[in-house]
Amino acid sequence: HLSAQPGEIRTTCAYCGVGCGVLAKPDGQGGLTVRGDPDHPANRGRLCSKGTALGETVGHEDRLLYPVIDGARADWDTALDQVADRFRETIAEHGPDSVAFYVSGQMTTEDYYVANKLMKGFFGSANIDTNSRLCMASTVAGHKRAFGTDTVPGTYEDLELADLVVLTGSNLAWCHPVLYQRIVAAKAARPEMRVVVIDPRRTATCDIADLHLAIAPGADVALFNALLSQIDRRGARDPRFARHLDGMEEALAAAHAEDVSRTGLSPAQIAAFCDMWIGTEKVVTVFSQGVNQSTSGTDKVNAILNCHLATGRIGRPGMGPFSVTGQPNAMGGREVGGLANTLACHLDIENAAHRDAVQTFWAAPAMPERPGLKAVDMFRAVEEGRIKALWIICTNPAVSMPEADRVRDAIAGCDFVVVSDITDRTDTARLAHMLLPAAGWGERDGSVTNSDRTISRQRAVLPPPGDARPDWAILAEVGRRMGWAKAFDWPDAAAVFREHAALSGVAGRFGGDFDISDHAALDAQGYAALAPFRWPTAGTRQGGRFFGDGRFFTPSGRGRMIPVSARALATETCEARPFRLNTGRIRDQWHTMTRTGRAARLNRHMGEPFVEIHPNDAARLGLAPAGLAELRGATGCAVLRVLVTDRVREGEVFAPIHWSGDTAPTGRVDALVAARTDPFSGQPESKAAAVSVAPY
Ligand code: SF4
Hints:
metal ion binding, iron, molybdopterin cofactor binding, Dimethylsulfoxide Reductase, domain 2
């Protein structure tokens, strides 16, 4: 691998939470060539199919090039004045909680920071939530319960140093391919390294599994409680580390009482898993959407954390629980507090001292004292007319939210909807009163944080097309037009980053985990040249791991084991809807295909919406391979190409989430998913819907 060559600009991939470094070079004709950055710590030169095709996604076809108001082209002044006026009037008439922002883990940290500051500090509402709610909100809640803060304990190196990698609820081979490649390479170098995959479906990730546990949908708590129970019975607890923990006895009691038959696994399979896990000191348990997207997602996270805490296998080389985030900047969004129930820099919105400190720092006129509406509740409030002005930025909820048809109708009925995006061709954009053209990946400056806390720059490589502007600049302009000129006066993204970094010093004063205030004086040149760095940036943990030293961020300074018990899935299958629908991603598409759909070679991988169904079910229902099936849930239907495969079990089907379309029949799979949510995280149960399947 050669390092950067003349004309190549270092940036970071637009897609998943691995956060791969990219070397991008304009081709002189409006396009880009890309290759993996050999110097980036996340990927060391590797890219997956999506990253490799980034250069094919930057064309101007279908781009939104200028503001649009009620279908007619407008100029920025008119559009921004109207946004400012409508939000000001709505707040004045109906109060701050009558407005909302729904934002995205695709935004840069700088975009997120400005959106969060405008809503929480100046509108005085916490009604800002993000599509990260559908992605990793359960991990945030689980981390906070156990650690006191939303802190990922380990690093990517741990996945290579481990002697056992357990992947649960994660099709890493397709959803985080470069991280998967790193494990494959580590296993090739050390064949004694073992991999366990826990997934109801036999995914591509199972190719490297020494053991695949085809667990019953949603049963992770039961399995990890079985493991915790065995950890105790076999004397595998770490008594020295136990001094740093609360809640051990309660968690053990719940684990011993667990009904392990819920897992659907045989006693021999469970014993084999426990033997491997307990018998291997260096174990990393990787978890992703199969854990998070559940009405017991937070409990699942804590069931996993409990096992690592009880054995002291956390925050040491090759050991620990490891959440891999879906989006490129879900972690940055968490750091700025871009969720409805967080504040800024991992501070707590319900803590008066934290609120006061942030309010003082921002010189903000108003701060909400309570969390705002989480995504599902937010769109319910839109439906009921309680939210009267909604700004959707860089995301497509009319396709991606559970009960997507209902969400689409709710947005259509809202008094005032602004959508900022790179295109007007999304189902959500078609519902907007106002469209604002956003600069996209490759056209904007900012930063993102990946799954192992590494902050990297996304850099502008091409000029934005037409009148497009970066999201942070659009939001700041609205803030200024609403009368807060000083608070929203930044000349560039670097200045926003500096302010975010300075605010993190406030969190540091409260003893929090996220403090990058040593970057608060970064000048424009320093920001331009900023190399990837992993926080924490100072102290004994600098650049490394958390909690191996027994120091946690709870008020007592001790880690918490949380007693959890498996619960039934929220949606029962029944005679009318006898199939369990699992949803997920495919290798070559991203979210609702706004960007990846532009690359012909990515569309060749799997060109149509499809459903995986077991051969016995297909035969019984009269479904021919490559025929069409209609899936019906309680809240919607989808028509999908039939893919007959024994990767799924009888009674279970799998369908990817990517396709959209607003005229029936469509492949909008989230229309089938009920909006039932986890009580702690508010994350919907996207992987266990109940549906009927029939020939179309
Ligand atoms: Fe981009 Fe993720 Fe692929 Fe890396 S693994 S190139 S971050 S999509």
